[in-house]
## 1
Amino acid sequence: MTKNTNMLTDNPVLHYDEKTSYTLSPPKKLCWFLLSALLALLGFLGTMASALSLYTPDYSKAIVFLAAIIAFGLAILFQRIPHGGWGNVGVVLLTLCILIFAGGHTTAGIQFLVNSVYHTTQHTEIDYYTVDEAYVETSCVTLLFSCAAILLAFFFVYFTIRRPLFLIPTLISFLIIEPGLYCGIALTPMAAAPLLAYWCGMSALHLTLRRTTSPKVPVRNISSICGICTAMLVLVVYTLVVFTGWISDYTRSEADRLRKKSISNSLAAFDFNNLAESIRSFGSSVGLYRDTEISRLGKKSKLEFEDEDELILTFDTLPENMIYLKGFTGTVYEDNSWLASAEFSDATNAEMVSDIISSYDCAPQNYAFLFQQSLLADTNLISCTITSAGTNETDNSRCYQPYISYSEEASFQDDVDWSVADASSYTWMISEGSSVLATLNENPIVDFTFSVPENSDTVVEKFLRALGVDDSEVLLQTRFPSSQAALSPESITGKVIPAMLMESLVYWDYANDAYTEQPDVDELQEVYDALPTSILEKANPSTAEEQVELLCEIRNWLAEETKYTTSPGKTPDTRDFVSFFVLENQKGYCVHYASAGTLLARYLGIPARYCEGFLITDDQYDEAEETEDGYTLSLTDRQSHAWTEIYIDGYGWIPFEMTPGYYNTEAAAMKSLFSDGETAQEESETEELEEEQAESADSEETTQPAQTSETDNPDEADQTEISDPDATTTAVTSTNDKAEKEQESFVFPTWLKWTISIILILAALVGIYVLLHKLILKRRQRVMQDLRDPKRAIMTSYHYLLRLLRFCGIPYHGSLLLDYQKQVASYLEEQELPMQAVLEVISITLAFDMGNHVPSPQRQAHAAVELHRLSKAIYGTRKLPMRILMKIMMLY
């Protein structure tokens, strides 16, 4: 002990009487601890209340509430007892182990939760995930919510009291409630109040801690007071604002509501699997641009209208019949989308069609107009100028074409796409005649020999070579008699014969090959198998009469199996759009019926395409305003529509209506023109079905046309059961086949999956710990030698020394610090351990505490070195288990 005494009395920093006793004031932690605990309670309570108000599956509220109370109480208790951090780690690991080893229930709980959100947002009873019947929703979700409550309790307590941070708890709480907000679920204002108060309070607490240079304990008191006062102030103000809005019945303006709804709908439809399209959709909602190359299906759930002008039409004479304005043509169906792609390189004559359209302005879109003008002398010609009503000059709007029309301004790139020099305004000449379909019946396809002119110019020769014509005479199949083709009106002279040649020699075979191609979607086979035998027997019709008759049967079958509604809900990402519509949900509007009708028509051998645009009905002409230029009619989104387009050999593309309640179109009337008296009863039944469907549509929507673009927040809609037993049997058979294939393939044993999962989790935890261990040790050494903040360096060295000595079994209990120094020095001398760290650190701490004396940089660095030397010596004298414990406690 003489050695120790001499070393103490020779210390040049301290000058004291050996009989005088000094000790550091015990830290007064109770005040800041209680305030921090209250702040943590606000965060935990706000997150749980917000989550439970957004997500409402079946669960036991009593069990979850009890688990939350117990977990929060234990988390607070572990912060007050010695080595409480081990309790935190133990509870968290235990909870994670429960979730892992109850993997089936955990997975089922998550699936039940997703299904609940899907039911709420889509107003449907259809499940997004099919959960094994062995799992009960209440027990699985209760387990999931209880474990989540335990983890959240310890998370908020730790990052609010022990390691007060702003970003991490704020981010986690936001990520918990964001999926519900993202899906459009309304958050209860008072449930969010504690969470908002917590965010603001933690921000104030964190800023106070970072900006003050006061000693540690006073800093925690001040920061905790600032944090809780800020939180309470925000809580009071938020409550007053909500209460005032409720009393005054405040509502947003209509313009704000519509804009917010548009942005919300586009965000709710955001799909990371189709990121570019989702970004374009969001841009369109804020008035930036639109997409003309793709039509995504099933991403939104309800027809909602903004009633803003989309197009302005100017007629020189008002039409007598309804008009379809085609703005989008879908040719390829994949990934629940229609693509405006006309590239069918494997189809018959594909290369020839592409070359002729792009080189000779001989487009199939013009063929119906040329046919009608040549064969129907009484056809009216109506000028229609289409003007975009959009205010954004950079808006990539779709251009629209009426059927049976022609324009000198239009330039066709391929079988689908066309453009004009000025997309904001362009003019079409529409050939309107009431007897087109009758003329088709009166003019069947006949063989016609075309003689090539002897003195053909270079352009004609190139055109004929492009068609593959080498002989002087060509056999055609056409509805044009030679005399009628030669007597075509002057306005189309020189266009009829090239169009006739292309349609008969090239395009006919191309259309029947390309537009009967089936998409590579396995789920669609179940739809095809569900078709009744009476329809399947009529596949591959050879005449226009048979085509129309078969299409009407398809249309009637869809009307029987499904229900028209403007709020069918979203299509789950795990389902095919058409299959989900026909076999499961059985609810939809024009987009659903047009898509299903197009694919069914192709499957049965009828060339078909999907179209979107506007439908102008007869009664809407009454709203036209007479001007100096003629008659002006404005179209809003309420006139937008979707339909199926079919190809009639020898004539061209015509619209065919598949949506119930919209059958009174010119194309639908073909059946009556081609039918005889034996089908009168069938026609009567069809009309009755159409009237019933129309009444159903009118009860949901005050205006007749449906909208092609889909939006969120659907109204409640009833689910319809599948009425076709053949479809159910086929679905079960298909499921059994899939199950047998899965059994034949190799499956990892369950125990092996769990073993690999546990090993990976443990490896990840060990890796994270090793990284944190290195970071913490480096940070501590850097702080103890930080010359810019010696006060912080002294306190860090002092507390680290006390932790080392506590590990050695000589903890400090608040006795005289000099007596404790002597006791420690004696112990270290007996153990043959270096004691210089104890003498240096305690001497520096006393000098700073009593006299505010800052040590020299050399002495500060020397103390840090000696501390490391002491910890290394202690580590070297311990056995392996204690060494591991020192590593875990971050002592070495």
## 2
Amino acid sequence: MVDPRDQDQERVFFGATVTYSDSSGAEHTVSIVGTDEVDPARGRVSWVSPVARALLKAREGDAVTLTTPAGEERLEVREIRYEELR
């Protein structure tokens, strides 16, 4: 388990919940989780997925490039947050 208090909470790392906008301006929110916790319907994506890899180490306001089979897409990081441990 990764303790969010040990993370640089200004950057995207494992355990982050990230809101980003795509090139059309639509906003999406994903949580970066382990491969055994993936649940696309709840916005939970693996840390090794293309979108998570594009977002890793970004800061709010950064633009990153997502590479897909259809080509490259620009994503802009809007918000990064880490949930408190319960």
